[in-house]
Amino acid sequence: MNTVLLALAVDVVAIVVLACAIYYRRHRRADLMFAYIALNTGIFAVCTLLMAQQAGLALGFGLFGVLSIIRLRSDEISQREVGYYFIALALGLVNALGADSLLVMAGLDLLLLGTMYAADHPALTGRARRRVIVLDVVHEDDTALRADLERRLRAPVRRMVVERVDYVRETMVVDVRYRASDPQGSARPGTAGRPAARPEVLR
User: Fold this and answer.
1) If you write DSSP's letter for every residue of 120-183 in order, what string do you get?
2) Do 196 and 176 form a contact (C-beta atoms < 8 A)?
3) Which helix (H) or strand (E) holds 201?
4) Taking Cα atoms as reference points, which of 76, 83, 78, 85 lies closest to residue 34?
5) Which CATH code for domain 126-202?
6) What CA–CA distances, in Å, run from 60 to 5, 42, 44, 92?
7) How far from chain centre, in Å, is Cα 164?
8) Interior CA angle at 73 toward 134 and 85, to 5°?
9) For the chain, which terminus, N or C, has the lower number of CB atoms within 10 Å?
C-alpha cells in the first residue's frame, strides 16, 4: 500500500508539471489541461488495479495499445496536443507499473517531462505559424502564389498547400505554414502550429 501511495504521489507531481507547468503555461487551454490530468489519473488507477489482480503486464500494454489507436478527430486538436495526450498516458503507465522501482520510475518521468519541455520550447517553435487562407485571386503559378502570400503575411512562407480553387468566384483556399517575423507574431497565445478552425480571408 505504501508503494502504491508513493507511486501515486510521484504520478500526481509528474502530471501537474506536464499539464500545468509546461502545457497550460505555453498554450492556455484549460480544457485540454483537464483532459490530460483525467487521462493520466484514469490510466494510473486502472493499471494499479490490474497489477493488484495480477492481470500481468500484457494486459496493461494491451490497454496502452487500444488507447494509442484512438484517433482524435477535431480541428481544435493539433498533433502537438496529441503528443501531450500520449505523454500523459505514458506517465500513468510508467508510474503504475514501475511502483516497485522508484529510481527507474522517477528517471523515466524526468525523461518524458524533459523531452516535452525541450521539444515544445518556444525557442524552437515560437515563430511557427499555420493559417488556412482564402485568397480573392487565383494563381496558376506557385512562384506567384508564394510571393502573394509573403506580401500579405509579411513573413517567409515555408510550405503551402492549395486545398480548393473556385474559378467561378476567383478564389482559392491555401493551407500556409510560415515563420512570423517576431516571436509572438499576430497569433494568440498557444495558437502556434494549431490547425485553423476555419479559413480566413486575406485581401
Assistant:
1) T-HHHHTTEEEEEEEESS--SSHHHHHHHHHHHHTS-EEEEEEEEEETTTTEEEEEEEEE-SSS
2) no
3) strand 200-202
4) 85
5) 3.30.70
6) 19, 13, 10, 11
7) 27
8) 115
9) N
Q: For residues 105-144, b (16+ Cβ closer than 10 Å) or e, as one string?
A: bbebbeebbeebeeebeeeeebbbbbbbbbbeeebeeeee
Whether pLDDT at 78 is above 90: no
Parallel, antiparallel, or unpaired for β 128-135 and 157-166? unpaired
User: Of 41, 21, 20, nearest to 91 (Cα)?
Assistant: 41
What is the widest separation between alpha-carbon atoms in the chain?
Answer: 71
Q: What's the mean pLDDT when you consider all of the chain? A: 82
Indicate the domain borders of the chain: 2-120, 126-202
Distances (CA, A) of 15 to 1, 20, 27, 84, 152: 21, 8, 16, 10, 41
Which positions ≥6 away from 7 have C-beta within 8 Å?
Answer: 44, 48, 95, 96, 98, 99, 105
Residue keyed to cell 517531462: 113
| Stretch 30-59: mean pLDDT | 83
Mean pLDDT on 155-183: 88
Model confidence at 64: pLDDT above 70: no
Predicted model pTM: 0.70
